[in-house]
Amino acid sequence: MGAKPFTIKIGKSTFGIKLPMVPTANLGLPSKVGRVAAGNKSKKHVVILNSHSLSDYQRCPKRYEFNNLIQIEPASRRNVFTIGAYWGKMLEIYYRAKSNKASTAVLGKLVHRMSKCAANNETFDDDQKKLLIAQDLLSTRIILYHKRYQSETQDVLGVEVGFSIILFEDAKHLFIYEGRPDRIIRMPDPFNPREKVICIIDDKTRGQDKDLIDFNNQINGYLVAANTNWFMYNYMGKQQDVKKAFDRQLVYRGNAELERWKERTIKWYRRLLNDRLNGEFLESMQCPGEYSACEFLSLCSSKDKIEYDAVMNSKFKKRDTERRSW
Ligand code: SF4
Q1: Which residues in the chain show pLDDT less than 70?
Q2: Hey, how many other C-beta atoms are within 10 angstroms of the C-beta on 211?
Q3: Is residue 324, in this structure, part of any structural domain at all?
Q4: Strand partners, 159
Q5: What is the pLDDT of residues 310-321, one digit of tens each?
Q6: Ligand 1 pocket mutation, candidates 71, 283, 308, 315, criterion most atoms within 8 A of CB
Q7: So what's the pLDDT on residue 81?
Q8: Which residues span the domain enclosing 9?
Q9: What CATH number has the domain bearing residue 229?
Q10: Is 121 contained in some domain?
Q11: What are residue 203's phi and psi, to 5 degrees?
């Protein structure tokens, strides 16, 4: 089933994931580098990371190697939509339509169409009970979301905007950070409402807990890339109480904090490059072992090369898509 339910036609317009992404260069944001191919011919050492690969490395170098260099995943992993991915895709379609100036009537039709798609999507889970919960949650929440935010006049500058910025460059190194924020909007400056500021929006599904901000690569990296200080999480809660279903968390990061993130991150790039040149990515000394949520535990706990190879061949497969942001 995959992405098919999301190519939605209403009248002459097509709304769906097949629409092209807006290049950042068209938004009048600070200059960006073009996308650099992984096999760049430059004599420089090119390291390209995004928030996921950087966080992988910070958590455990070995995990970075499995996920991003060897590029494997559990053979049992099905190519299905999670609730979060499906919700993000629905909001992508919704805001693409909004930024294309779709009328309220067209938006209303669109959300009902998406609601129906979600109610019939069978890829969420094999477990019948969990499948019904996901279908019900997503099909009802998108209608409620529209009711709650339909009159909001956000100046949407871009939806799913891919960017690549140079974090550091000298004669021998080129460190690039990539990302793809869900949306970029222009909004009144909360400190001075007569001025406008750019804000990066990220859609999330979650319970009630707030995220930690200081070391969050996604937030800090997006803000450095877009040269702005404002970020917002747009939450959809999974709790039964629909009054608590939606919430927003506005985050301000000052220039000094962003500069500190950038300096630290460049150091992480250097460590990673060093590991790459040495061909050695160590296991984390803090690996929580059997309680780990890490899918590579069976590889790391193999007692010798024979067992490692057997586990690799029987439990893992090569990922068929590259893990890049755009
Ligand atoms: S199981 Fe532990 S050591 Fe192995 S990759 Fe995962 S976090 Fe790292």
Answers
A1: 1-42, 79-80, 207-212, 240, 291-292, 321-322, 326
A2: 14
A3: no
A4: 183
A5: 999 999 999 876
A6: 283
A7: 72
A8: 4-35+46-266
A9: 3.90.320
A10: yes
A11: -85, 135
Q: Indicate whether residue 72 lines ligand 1 (CB < 6 A).
A: no
Query: Nearest 5°: phi and psi at 289?
Result: 60, -130
The verdict on residue 245 lying in a domain is: yes
> What is the rounded distance in angstroms from the CA atom of residue 247 to the CA atom of residue 146?
14
Give the pLDDT confidence score for residue 326 in this predicted structure: 66
Residue 326 belongs to a domain: no
Distance 70 CA to ligand 1 centre (A): 14
Question: Is any atom of ligand 1 closer than 6 Å to the C-beta of 60?
Answer: yes
Q: What is residue 232's three-state secondary structure? A: strand
**Interval between CA 311 and ligand 1 midpoint (Å):** 15
Q: How many domains are contained in the chain? A: 1
Q: Which of 59, 68, 292 to mutate to test the pocket of ligand 1 (most atoms within 8 A of CB)?
A: 292
Minimal-distance CA residue to ligand 1 atom 7: 287
Question: How many Å apart are CA 87 and CA 245, to the nearest integer?
Answer: 13
Q: Whose CA is nearest to atom 5 of ligand 1?
A: 63
Q: Is-above-0.70 flag for pTM?
A: yes
If one counts every other C-beta atom within 10 angstroms of the C-beta of residue 229, the result is 18
**C-alpha to C-alpha distance for 46 and 253, rounded to whole angstroms:** 28
pLDDT score of 22? 37
Question: Is 6 close to ligand 1, i.e. is its CB under 6 Å away?
Answer: no
- 67 C-alpha to ligand 1 centroid (Å): 11
DSSP assignment, residue 86? Answer: H
| CA–CA dist 240, 137 (Å, integer) | 9
